[in-house]
C-alpha cells in the first residue's frame, strides 16, 4: 500500500506530465533504446515512428497518476495490457529497465520540479504497479503453459497452406512444427507472431486475431498487406516457419445466450469470423447479427463463408455494406436501419479506430448501455 503522502506527491506531478505531454514518452523511448537496444526486439518500432506508442504510454502514465488512489478503476486497462505483454513475453527484468529510464527521464526533463521527495514517491508508485503487472502476467503464462497443448514464450509453427481471402487479405493456416496439440483459445483473441523480415535488424512482433476455429494442431490468422510485417507475411510460402506466442487477449465472445451483434470493417472482420464460426457450431445459437463494411466486392474477405454460415439459419443473419459497387447496402453502416437487440444484446466492434468510434456513437444514440459495447484495437490501445 502507498502512503497518503506518496499518493499526494505523485498526484502533484499531473500538471507536470500534462504540460510536457508526449515529450516525456518520446524522451523515455529514445533513452531506453539507446541504453538497451535489445528491447527493439520486443517493441513495435513502427508504432514508435508513428508516435502511437508515445501517445499510449503518456495516457497510461497520466491515468495512473490520476487514479493512483483508486486503482480498481484501471483494472480493465491493466488486464488488456497484461495480455498484450504476454504475447510479447515481457519478463520481470524488463520492468526494472523501464522503471530506471522512466525515473531518469523525469529527472532529466524537469530537474527543478522533480525533487528527491517526488522521485522517491514515483519509485514507490512504479514498484507497486510493476508488481501488479508481473504477478498478473505470470498468472497468464502459468495458466496457459499448464493447459493441454500450452506453452510459454514462443513455439515453432509451419505455414501449412495459404488462402487468398480478398484482394489484400491472405489466411495462413499454421501447424505446430512438432505436430502436437495446441492450446485452445476464446473467439476474439489474438496470437503473437515473431518474425525477422530480411530488411530488419530486429525481431518484429505483431498480434493477429485468430480468424477461425482451432485446428487439432494449429491456428488460422488472416493478414491484410499494409505494412512491414504484413508484407513479410504475404511473402511467405507453404513450408516456411514462424514463431508464435500462445493465444492471448481480453476481447472475447461471452459464453451466454444474450443476443450477439458483431460489427466490423475491413480486416476487422478477422476476430468476428472466429466468433461467427463458434456461434454457428451451437445447436441452439443465440440470435446473432453479423454486420460488416468494406470498400467493395474485391476487398470483401470471407464473403462465401459468411453466406454459408448465415444461409438457412434463422438465428444468424448478415448485413454487408459496400462503399463502392452494388450487391449489398450502399455507403456507410447505419445501425438505425437494422432491427438490433439494443436492450439485451452484446455489441462487438473491430476495425479502424474512427470506424469503431462512429459505431459506438450510433449505439449510444440507440440507448445501448456502454458496458455492453466491447471492442478491439489493433496496435496500442486507444479509447473510443
Secondary-structure blueprint of this entry?
Layout: H1 4-11, H2 14-20, H3 23-35, H4 45-50, H5 52-66, H6 75-88, H7 92-109, H8 116-146, E1 155-164, E2 169-176, E3 190-195, E4 204-209, E5 218-224, H9 228-235, E6 241-244, E7 260-265, H10 269-280, E8 288-294, H11 303-310, E9 316-322, E10 329-330, E11 346-350, H12 353-365, E12 373-376
Parallel strand pairs: 7-8, 7-11, 8-9, 9-10, 11-12
Antiparallel strand pairs: 1-2, 1-6, 2-5, 3-4, 3-6
Helix pairs in contact: 1-8, 3-5, 3-7, 6-8, 7-8
Summarize the model shown.
This protein has 384 residues and is α/β, with parallel strands linked by helices. It has 12 helices and 12 strands.
What is the alpha-carbon Rg in Å? 22 Å
How are the strands of the largest sheet arranged?
4-3-6-1-2-5
> Which fold name corresponds to the CATH topology of the largest domain?
Globin-like
> How many distinct folded domains?
3
Percent in strands? 15-25%
Mean pLDDT score: 91
Q: Could you say what the CATH architecture of the largest domain is?
A: Orthogonal Bundle
Helicity level: 25-40%
Number of strands: 12
CATH class of the largest domain equals Mainly Alpha
Order of helices and strands: HHHHHHHHEEEEEHEEHEHEEEHE
Spell out the CATH superfamily of the largest domain.
Answer: Globins
Terminal residue distance: 32 Å
- Indicate the low-confidence ranges by residue numbers: none
Shape designation: globular
Organism: Pseudoalteromonas aurantia 208
Protein name: nitric oxide dioxygenase
Pfam families: FAD_binding_6, Globin, NAD_binding_1
EC number: 1.14.12.17
Amino acid at each position: 500500500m502507498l502512503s497518503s503522502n506518496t499518493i499526494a506527491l505523485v498526484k502533484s506531478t499531473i500538471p507536470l506530465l500534462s504540460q510536457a505531454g508526449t515529450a516525456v514518452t518520446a524522451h523515455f523511448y529514445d533513452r531506453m533504446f539507446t541504453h538497451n537496444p535489445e528491447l527493439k526486439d520486443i517493441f513495435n518500432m513502427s508504432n514508435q515512428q508513428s508516435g502511437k506508442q508515445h501517445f499510449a504510454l503518456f495516457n497510461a502514465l497520466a491515468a495512473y497518476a490520476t487514479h493512483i488512489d483508486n486503482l480498481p478503476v484501471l483494472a480493465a486497462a491493466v488486464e488488456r495490457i497484461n495480455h498484450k505483454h504476454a504475447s510479447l513475453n515481457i519478463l520481470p527484468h524488463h520492468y526494472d529497465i523501464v522503471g530506471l529510464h522512466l525515473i531518469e527521464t523525469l529527472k532529466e526533463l524537469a530537474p527543478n520540479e522533480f525533487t528527491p521527495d517526488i522521485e522517491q514517491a514515483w519509485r514507490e508508485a512504479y514498484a507497486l504497479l510493476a508488481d501488479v503487472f508481473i504477478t498478473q502476467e505470470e498468472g497468464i503464462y502459468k495458466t496457459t503453459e499448464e493447459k493441454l497443448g500450452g506453452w510459454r514464450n514462443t513455439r515453432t509453427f509451419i505455414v501449412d497452406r495459404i488462402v487468398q481471402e480478398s484482394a489484400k487479405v491472405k489466411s495462413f493456416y499454421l501447424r505446430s512444427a512438432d505436430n502436437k496439440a495446441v492450446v485452445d483459445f476464446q473467439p476474439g483473441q489474438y496470437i503473437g507472431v515473431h518474425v525477422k523480415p530480411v530488411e530488419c535488424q530486429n525481431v518484429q512482433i505483431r498480434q493477429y486475431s485468430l480468424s477461425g476455429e482451432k485446428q487439432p494442431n494449429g491456428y488460422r490468422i488472416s493478414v491484410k498487406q499494409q505494412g512491414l510485417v504484413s508484407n513479410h507475411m504475404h511473402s511467405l510460402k507453404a513450408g516456411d516457419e514462424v514463431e508464435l506466442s500462445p493465444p492471448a487477449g481480453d476481447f472475447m465472445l461471452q459464453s451466454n445466450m444474450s443476443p450477439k451483434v458483431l460489427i466490423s470493417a475491413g480486416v476487422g472482420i478477422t476476430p468476428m469470423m472466429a466468433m461467427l464460426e463458434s456461434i454457428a457450431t451451437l445447436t441452439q445459437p443465440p440470435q446473432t447479427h453479423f454486420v460488416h463494411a468494406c470498400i467493395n466486392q474485391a476487398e470483401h474477405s470471407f464473403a462465401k463463408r459468411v453466406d454459408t454460415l448465415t444461409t438457412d439459419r434463422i438465428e444468424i443473419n448478415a448485413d454487408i455494406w459496400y462503399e463502392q459497387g452494388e450487391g449489398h447496402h450502399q455507403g456507410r453502416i447505419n445501425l438505425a436501419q437494422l432491427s438490433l437487440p439494443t436492450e439485451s444484446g452484446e455489441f462487438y466492434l473491430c476495425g479502424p479506430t474512427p470506424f469503431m468510434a462512429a459505431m459506438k456513437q450510433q449505439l449510444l444514440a440507440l440507448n445501448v448501455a456502454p458496458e455492453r459495447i466491447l471492442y478491439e484495437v489493433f496496435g496500442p490501445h486507444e479509447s473510443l
